[in-house]
Amino acid sequence: MQNRIYLLVLTAMIFLSACKKDFLDRTPETSISEAEFWKTSNDLQLYVNNFYTAFPSTIGSFGTIGPYGLDADDGSDNMITMSVNGTMNGTRIVPSSGGGWAYGDWNTLRNINYFMINYNKVNASWDNKKTYVGEALFFRAWFYFSKIKQFGDVPWVNKPLDITSGELKAPRLSRAVIVDSIMNDLDKAVQYLPSKGAAQASRVNKQIAQLLQARIALFEGTWEKYHANTSFGVTGSDGSKFLQKAASVSGDLIANSGGYALVATPGTDGYWKLFNQTNYSANTEVMLWRQYDLNTNGGHYWHRYTGSGAGRGLTKNLVDYYLCTDGKPITGNALYQGDATLQNVVKNRDPRMVQTIYVNDGNHILTNNRPNGAATTLFEVPSFTAANETKPATGYQVYKGHNPDFNQQQDRGTTGYIIFRFAEALLINAEAKAELGTLTQTDVDITINKLRSRVGMPNLNIGAITSDPKWEFPALGPVINEVRRERRIELACEGYRRDDIYRWAAADELIVGWKPKGAMLSQWIGVVPAANLSSYPVDENGYIELFKNQASLSTGYKFNVLRDYLSPIPTDQMVINPDIKQNPGWQ
């Protein structure tokens, strides 16, 4: 059975924050005594259950970080919302407190470390304990990955601390040291965790730990490579050590997948259907997912919005990057039909495109299975007449992830949330090897070409790549550009793009001075009341430019490449510990 996660609540253990002096300085309090706990391996499982809340779990989670469209790629060149993103536009300020570094933000780490010093109290064999130790190490890696992405250098703490601990007054450690420690944790997790076939269906396993390890290694390897010789880089490192780790681990995962594999995406909607299921138990591609149930965990709110713009929209920049069905870019390609209508945009293009955005072609379903045999409703026009919170930002509305079932669009829905899927392993392997300069056609055939062939796209031949004058990174050469293109297209709206831009140090090329555009507005003149279109300014070519009249974006986004790749440390934390220095550019 596939790995699924319910909202796991550890009712026997209630962790309280009793002191605000600093982070990591309190032993978790429990509702039962030490003598009553740490008896059996079941106690270990109960404790570790609490860590699974690190994954989106609440009924409101899809309203803030939804997987397919609802903020997932906001903060990147894939998507915008109705409001200007402050990080992209360089308008963040240093917070006085909070900001991801407050005492409460370290509770998870404290609880994991508390587990790590107590699990051996359980009178059970190592075989009955090692799975839960592996899970704890997995979640410590997950926690620290989020922190290095946000802050870069951070303290490494592997034990619960008290207020006398010297570690609380230590400076931050280099991100490379932190990632070394993460790799060590995940090496052990991979060793301790059971493989897919032997693991419980709702828990992390060996292959999932490998995918997380490969993801983190790729992130850090490319971060160190492309931020080298900057204030964000790591002295003396070009990232190759981590790139080799990413290639090795993802390669082993692909070769010894334990039964994980891409699923077929037949017809004109197979790729779309991959992302809107309520149950992924039989899906070999989805490695870990959150299952929602109205009675167990209350469901979620995401499907209140998928039939409308949800206040979001994909950008013309993303749309233009989809290849034509001959495997070549749109520039100078006779297959490209222009942008006059949504139907023209998707014609003769990579099939994943028409399954990612709404198109008025009679095939994009808004609602089916309606009561009393009512007819299925189809998409006809973006929701320009909706309230501000649900208007489309660009005219390119997100269809990927939409579940058209009438019952899913009421108060709460139960469409599953994909956390890890096997396709990412293929993309990591191809990119890591491309960055190392070792990518072969054989590598491409078992990674990128597997993804392309299942949607009917021509294979990528790295010895005969068609030049694209609109490559995002012309200085890096054809192979890396096409590997990155495949990643962008396959993972569109799944929340990876912002991290990709940051680890590639690519904001200067992709974000600074960029003005996001959308679809051509003229196609809806006379179809939508003029009053509803009046708030959508257009550029000189008639494409929607939502922020055209906002003074703060008169010259495009003002992302500060000397500062904005990392978040600022709150000022109160530098008062508590003067050895914690501010991140570059935020002084």
Main β-sheet description: 3 strands, mixed
Weakly predicted, low-confidence segments: 6-31, 61-69
Radius of gyration equals 24 Å
Q: Which sequence of strands runs across the widest sheet? A: 1-3-7
CA distance, first residue to last residue: 51 Å
Q: How many DSSP-defined strands?
A: 7
Q: Shape from CA axes?
A: globular
Class by alpha and beta content: mainly alpha
List the helices and strands and how they pair.
Layout: E1 4-5, H1 41-49, H2 62-65, E2 79-81, H3 107-118, H4 130-151, H5 175-192, H6 206-226, H7 240-255, H8 270-273, E3 286-290, E4 312-314, H9 316-319, H10 342-346, H11 351-354, E5 365-367, E6 377-378, E7 417-421, H12 423-436, H13 441-445, H14 448-453, H15 478-490, H16 497-503, H17 507-510, H18 530-533, H19 571-576
Parallel strand pairs: 1-3
Antiparallel strand pairs: 2-4, 3-7, 5-6
Helix pairs in contact: 3-4, 4-5, 4-6, 5-6, 6-7, 6-12, 6-16, 7-12, 12-15
Structure description:
With 587 residues, the chain is mainly alpha-helical. Helix content is 30%, strand content 4%. The chain is built from 19 helices and seven strands. It has helices spanning 41-49, 62-65, 107-118, 130-151, 175-192, 206-226, 240-255, 270-273, 316-319, 342-346, 351-354, 423-436, 441-445, 448-453, 478-490, 497-503, 507-510, 530-533, 571-576; strands spanning 4-5, 79-81, 286-290, 312-314, 365-367, 377-378, 417-421. The strands form three sheets. The protein has a three-stranded mixed sheet. Strands 2-4 form a two-stranded antiparallel ribbon. Strands 5-6 form a two-stranded antiparallel sheet. The protein is globular, with a radius of gyration of 24 Å. The termini are far apart.
